[in-house]
Amino acid sequence: MFKISKEYANRIFPNPLHSKDILNMSHHDTLLSQTLSLVPRHVFQKLENRHKTGRYSHKFGFKEQFTVMAFIQFAAWRSMRDGLRALSAVGNRLYHWGLKPVARSTFAGANNSRPVGFFKDHFAEIYGLCAQKAPKHRFRFKCKLYSLDATVISLCLSLFPWATFRKNKAGVKMNTVLDHDGYVPVFADISKAKSLSLPQGSIVTFDKGYINCSWFRLLGEKSIFFATREVTSRGKTLRLRRVGYRDAETGKRYEFLTNHFHLSARTIADIYKERWRIEIFLREIKQNLRIKSFVGNTGNAVPIQIYTALTVYLLLAYQKFLNKIGLSVQQIFQRITRNLLGTRSLEELLNPRTPKNENPYYLSLLGLAA
Length: 370
Known about the structure:
By secondary structure, this protein is an alpha+beta fold. It is 42% helix and 14% strand.
C-alpha cells in the first residue's frame, strides 16, 4: 500500500480537520436559530437569576420556554399539541437550538406557573437593543415621541372564563405604547395603561379613550407632555392649552388639548396625526403574530404568549436596524416564516437587492405535523 510521510501530509494539509470540525461544517444554522441568536447570551442568565424558575429549571428553563414559544409564533401553530408535535418532528435541529423534546405537561406547566415578569423584562431588554439602533422620528424637536392606544383581543368565554370583558363576552384589553423612533413597541400591559413610565420631557399622543384629568395631572408631575383631541371636562381645574388647526387641503378644523405651551399649532396637529402609526402597528401584529389564538388558557399563559409575540417583533426590528434592511418588519416576518427551517443566511434572505429565488433549503412546516 502506498503511504505518505507525516511531514508531507502536513505540508499539503497544514490544518487538518478533526471529526468535530467536519460535523460543524455539515451543520447550518436555520433562520430560526439565526434570529434567536440576536439575543445576547447574558440576557437570559441575568433574567433567570432575577426570576427563579424552580426545581425543573435545569431541564426546561426560561430560555428553552421562550425558544419553543418563538417557534410556535413563527410557525403559526394554533394549538399546543400541534406546535410540540411539529417541534419534535424537527429532529436533530433541536440540539442546535439548545432544546430537547419537551413533554406537553412540562410546557403547559411552565406557561401556567412561570412568572410573567420574566417575559415582560425580556421584552424590555430587547427593546433596549432596538432603541440604540432605531432611526429617529421625523420631527425637529429632540425629545422622544410616543403614541398610546389599546386593542381588544377577543377570547372564548368558555375557554377563558377569567377574561370577562363584557356581558357574555371574553377578551383582554392590551394597552400599547409605540416609540416613534423606529416605530417599535416599548410598553404593553393587559391590565392598565397608567402604570407606564416614560422619560422626562417626552411627548405622548393618544385619543379620547385615555382622557382623564387625574392622569393629565400625573403626567405633568412626571414632566411628560401629551397631545390629544379636545373634550369637555367640568369640575376639574387644570391648566392646559387648546390648539385650533385648520387643514389647508380639506378645510376641516381640528382642536387639540396639550400641556406643551411652546410647540407650534401645526406641530401639535402633526404629532396627533402621527398617532395613526400605532393603529397600523396593532393591526399588523393581529394579522401576523399569534395573539388571537393561544396555546394556553390561563391568565398566566396568555400574557406570556403576548410578550413573546412582541419580543419576536422587536427581534425582527433589531435585525432591520442593524443591517439597514429596506423591508418592513411585517415583510421580514413573512419571509422568515416561509423559510423558517431553511439554512440560508438572514442577510441573503432579507436583503432586498438579492433575487427572490426560492430557498433551496426550504422545509415545509406543513409537513412537520404529518
